[in-house]
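#struct-pred
JK: can someone run the complex with protoporphyrin IX containing FE? inputs below
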Amino acid sequence: MQIQEPNARSAFDWIGGEATIHALVERFYDLMDLEPGYAALRAAHGDTLEAARQKLFWFLCGWMGGPQHYTERFGHPMLRARHLPFKIGILERDQWLACMDQAMGDVGVDADLRARLQNSFFQTADWMRNQGV
Ligand code: HEM
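RT: done, structure tokens with the ligand placed:
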């Protein structure tokens, strides 16, 4: 990802490092579990979200320009391939993005960074769609 602050800090530093990314991922999956508006997204996941919590945290650290925890453990993310077993249509994509945006708001991500991240999340989530609807 190419997001950088004007003074060239990485998105990882800008957001507040691992502590904020950890809080963000926890809030994201808590909301997915709690909010009726994310039920289709929740249904695309298994019974437990524990593996997803751990892996998204590792992934986002590297994706934002911080430590490469995910690739050190699993190699190239191959996100589209890894998501093929799950139904991802427009509904799931939009719920993922709304859930993440709400989580970013709840943990207080800077408004400028939040908008840039949301744009990058959209590109990634849209590319992962494997159903037309
Ligand atoms: C668009 C809607 C999306 C849906 C429905 C979805 C669903 C899922 C599901 C069901 C898993 C498996 C969780 C588990 O192992 O228990 C998963 C894993 C994962 N997702 Fe997503 N996801 C979406 C978008 C995204 C986006 C936009 C990102 C990154 C920005 C992302 C990053 C990841 C990562 C890193 C994993 C772990 C992959 C692995 O190593 O197995 N996902 N996702």
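RT: quick notes.
The two ends are 27 Å apart (CA to CA).
Helices lie at 11-15, 17-34, 39-43, 50-63, 69-74, 79-83, 90-106, 111-127.
JK: thanks, will look after standup
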